[in-house]
Design brief:
Blueprint lengths: L7 H4 L4 H23 L2 H28 L5 H23 L7 H14 L8 H6 L4
Helix pairs in contact: 2-3, 2-5, 3-4
The structure holds MU-OXO-diiron.
MU-OXO-diiron (FEO) binds next to helix 2, helix 3 and helix 4.
Length: 135
Amino acid sequence: MSLITWTKEQFGTTVSKHDQEHQQLFDLLNNLHDAAGAGNRATTGAALDALITCVVNHFASEESNMKAIDYAGFAAHKEAHDKLVATCADLQKKFHAGQAEITTDTTQFVKDWLCGHIPTVDFLYGPPMNTHGMG
Ligand code: FEO
């Protein structure tokens, strides 16, 4: 069973580009969750790398659009992104060095972060981006 499921009601930002990116993130997180649950280190490592690449690209995409509209909440939003990326990069490094494992606790942590971030922080850019024709 999937760890996380995207629905418009729960996660729709009204900006289709970012909604699509969020759905891709959820798919990759579900892949990582399955791999970690199965205990296959090679599959887990590949899934972890794919997820982190997608996270980094998604954050850059949102930040680019926020900058383009001179969004007032940019600095605080970017700070939240940077903090998660630092945590992920540290874990990725330790995992590949054999100093840490990815477990379903890890994937639950990422799920909780996304469930806390998208509906409260990401949702705020919806109206101003729509105003600028970014829906
Ligand atoms: Fe969709 Fe701000 O991350």
